[in-house]
């Protein structure tokens, strides 16, 4: 990867950060000083986020984590992009780095069994394994593993209710879960162990790790993987996909979606055109106007771009 290329780094780690509030300002200053854009979340339970910058800048950030000493098992994935996918630099303080909303669930204390990508196909090929996609419905819609259950959640907060209604520790002896980069299924595994499930597995590094390491001809993945930046989706070997994203409802859009008469760039799409309020629609129109002005003057978009 050349230094002029943009490196997109997705990272997280569950680690006890008693001083996470005090970490915010020095970390933000470091990102700004190195020209790194994107968002990092800090909480008592750890760190999570996706950032982008030059090769040198991202290497400097990894050095910052190494010098701290606590981020020694950081789950970390890179991709190369030909333009900056983020417009702002943020470090946010949160109650959870991925919001499940259930007290007492702590992957720092209890977590399922990590499964490396090269061992994943054999695990999910076991007919006794309950395979669950822990992502949200709009993510699952563009790609998933063969045979995976889609809980059809709109947010991760809905996952515990789905488990209580559809999974049984006495009946489902083996449970395997996956998500984009590993963070949601790691926390979900902690939750399920908390609920009495005995054998709980999750894909280490998530779908992105699998797509990077497993050759396409050996893969059981079908479709694209949704990502939370302006690439919108990636495929095997983390090559960019063909999806864009609706800025009103955030749903990924295929070429067929964009050809629909219900699609209006930045304003609505076939998934939301008949459900948007007048206020939301007007806000989307103003946002799109600002986006077009920013493009015209070759400057970062000031508002509304998904991160």
TrEMBL record:
Residues 125-219 form the Rhodanese domain. It is an enzyme of class 1 (oxidoreductase). Its EC number is 1.14.-.-. CDD domains: RHOD_YceA (cd01518). GO terms for molecular function: oxidoreductase activity, acting on paired donors, with incorporation or reduction of molecular oxygen. One of its GO terms (biological process) is tRNA modification. Keywords: Oxidoreductase, tRNA processing. It catalyses: uridine(34) in tRNA + AH2 + O2 = 5-hydroxyuridine(34) in tRNA + A + H2O. Catalyzes oxygen-dependent 5-hydroxyuridine (ho5U) modification at position 34 in tRNAs. NCBIfam families: PRK00142.1-4 (NF001136). Belongs to the TrhO family. This is tRNA uridine(34) hydroxylase.
């Amino acid at each position: 990867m050349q230094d002029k290329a943009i490196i997109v780094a997705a990272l997280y780690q569950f680690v006890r950060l008693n001083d996470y509030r005090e970490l915010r300002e020095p970390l933000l200053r470091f990102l700004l000083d190195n020209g790194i854009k994107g968002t990092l979340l800090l909480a008592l339970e750890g760190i999570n986020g996706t950032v982008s910058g030059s090769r040198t800048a991202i290497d400097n950030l990894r050095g910052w984590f190494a010098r701290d000493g606590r981020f020694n098992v950081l789950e970390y994935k890179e991709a190369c992009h030909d333009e900056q996918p983020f417009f702002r630099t943020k470090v946010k303080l949160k109650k959870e780095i991925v919001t499940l909303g259930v007290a007492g669930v702590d992957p720092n204390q209890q977590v399922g069994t990590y499964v490396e990508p090269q061992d994943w196909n054999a695990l999910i090929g076991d007919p006794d394994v309950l395979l669950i996609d822990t992502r949200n419905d709009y993510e699952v819609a563009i790609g998933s593993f063969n045979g995976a259950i889609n809980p059809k959640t709109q947010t991760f907060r809905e996952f515990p209710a789905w488990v209580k209604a559809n999974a049984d520790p006495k009946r489902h002896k083996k449970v395997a879960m996956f998500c984009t980069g590993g963070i949601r299924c790691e926390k979900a595994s902690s939750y399920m162990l908390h609920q009495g499930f005995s054998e709980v597995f999750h894909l280490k590094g998530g779908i992105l790790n699998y797509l990077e390491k497993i050759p396409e001809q050996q893969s059981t993945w079908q479709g694209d993987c949704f990502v939370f930046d302006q690439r919108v989706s990636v495929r095997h070997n983390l090559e960019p996909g063909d999806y864009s994203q609706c800025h009103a409802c955030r749903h990924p859009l295929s070429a067929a979606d964009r050809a629909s008469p219900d699609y209006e760039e930045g304003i609505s799409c076939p998934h939301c055109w008949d459900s948007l309020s007048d206020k939301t629609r007007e806000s989307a129109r103003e946002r799109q106007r600002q986006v077009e002005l920013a493009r015209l003057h070759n400057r970062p978009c000031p508002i509304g771009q998904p991160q």
